[in-house]
Design goal:
The chain has about 130 residues and is mainly α. It is globular and about 45 Å long. The two termini are about 25 Å apart. The protein is about 75% helix and about 0% strand. It has one domain.
């Protein structure tokens, strides 16, 4: 997969979940078998806002040439998705989320693997 494609897919996923978490967090979370208190609603909306930050980062960096900045973006997104993967696996296994929660695990795993690939992929140096 090309870097640009991974970034566009990540941006689309962040847009979809970001909007839902900002507007109807209770409904979205209830699909996964969980409930939110007042503090949970706030936290879900804060996460929705963070997803918009990821959305804009991914969208505007999708054409970034190989550089230290691009590597930093890849590393940050890799760590973000890896932590999300681990936390979500623990949450599903502990029974907080219903089996539909495994879809979230898969999404995080997809992006962790994708950004991990670009972390270990050898750089292509033009002209050598």
């Amino acid at each position: 997969m090309k870097f640009k494609n991974l970034m566009v897919i990540k941006a689309i996923v962040c847009l979809a979940f970001g909007i839902l978490l900002l507007i109807i967090p209770e409904t979205l979370i209830s699909l996964f078998g969980a409930t939110l208190s007042d503090g949970g609603i706030f936290t879900a909306r804060e996460y929705g806002a963070a997803l918009f930050g990821n959305l804009f980062l991914c969208w505007f960096a999708k054409n970034a040439a190989e550089s230290d900045a691009r590597r930093a973006i890849i590393l940050a997104l890799f760590v973000y998705d890896l932590i999300g993967f681990v936390v979500t696996v623990i949450t599903v296994v502990s029974g907080v989320l219903n089996p539909l929660g495994w879809l979230i695990v898969f999404v995080y795993l997809f992006f962790t693997a994708g950004f991990g690939y670009f972390l270990v992929k050898p750089s292509v140096v033009k002209g050598t």
